[in-house]
Amino acid sequence: xxxxxxxxxxxxxxxxxxxxxxxxxxxxxxxxxxxxxxxxxxxxxxxxxxxxxxxxxxxxxxxxxxxxxxxxxxxxxxxxxxxxxxxxxxxxxxxxxxxxxxxxxxxxxxxxxxxxxxxxxxxxxxxxxxxxxxxxxxxxxxxxxxxxxxxxxxxxxxxxxxxxxxxxxxxxxxxxxxxxxxxxxxxxxxxxxxxxxxxxxxxxxxxxxxxxxxxxxxxxxxxxxxxxxxxxxxxxxxxxxxxxxxxxxxxxxxxxxxxxxxxxxxxxxxxxxxxxxxxxxxxxxxxxxxxxxxxxxxxxxxxxxxxxxxxxxxxxxxxxxxxxxxxxxxxxxxxxxxxxxxxxxxxxxxxxxxxxxxxxxxxxxxxxxxxxxxxxxxxxxxxxxxxxxxxxxxxxxxxxxxxxxxxxxxxxxxxxxxxxxxxxxxxxxxxxxxxxxxxxxxxxxxxxxxxxx
Length: 453
Description:
Elements: H1 2-12, H2 17-42, H3 45-52, H4 57-64, H5 73-77, H6 84-104, H7 127-130, E1 148-150, E2 153-155, H8 157-161, H9 207-210, H10 240-243, H11 260-281, H12 300-305, H13 323-329, H14 344-352, H15 354-360, H16 385-389, H17 406-418, H18 429-436, H19 441-449
Antiparallel strand pairs: 1-2
């Protein structure tokens, strides 16, 4: 307070006023120089990479690996033509939101793990990109209404931008490219919400990313729903001819591996489906939920990107195939088997569609029944229906041997050793009578002649 009072008195005194004005001007000039130099230094690549974002080394090296490596960071991460006040506020916000966690080494790695920033129409609107890039020159004819084309791909940028879809909603890894020979450092850290670190970001130029908005009619086979009702935007369809030229090879290279259908596609699908289910039901946010968070819902870009699901919520298989395709190939049986299938539905199918079961389940020469492949440890020929139905869970005290016939050998031993009480929980006496009234001793002899115990 004494200093302020002294300054005020200096301006009131005619004799000291000129000196006070000179000192005030000098201090303000020095302050502006410090701010100007500070702002200039903190907007350089050196400061961003070596000081501010040094702990997020993958973000720096992926930027070095990109086509934008000679473009200043601030060019994309701050709106063009901003006024000095908003620019300084941007710096202050960055200092507290990013500077402090960086210094304390408490920021999540990798930074922006789900590429949420690229889906933010306020922080990365299209005019950040179009200050340099002209949509009229985006390959092919490039004129409005005439889709620009890459080899095998049809892409009409105007059809998307007219709906409010921003550039980075698709081109999210241009400035921080993680392809080619680039290799992440692989942090031994976890996200703050407890999910194991994934050093690679989602790439929105992949097929699964397109299917965040594009869908087959009725979202057949999708766990998540499209943000746009099918038909509201006629272009948001999953039909191949919308995005691919007639000469485009629709069969992915990974499908050409030897024995893909027999040995690869089933386990692969289950792994993909489980990853999607874990993501959708887990602690990671699934949708780009902008509503109710202070965004202007009247903005076309906000409306367009609101509710768009994450790439990880899209099942890769369903970008080409519908569940109807799976069902038709599997003989009319619902694939993948729905929840609760192991109860009555599978009993009916096993009775009326045994040929369909054998498409996937190996027929055992020992038990002569379709094998529940992979359901239990043991030989593929021995993982039979009996291996499930007669395991210890259902026949307490009996250890099923997959290499010994159940019908003629094991079931009698099990009934003798552990009793028939557990059997009658599923079977009634008529089941026993079907065989035991007309017992075929000849069939038993044939099994014993083959060396069966």
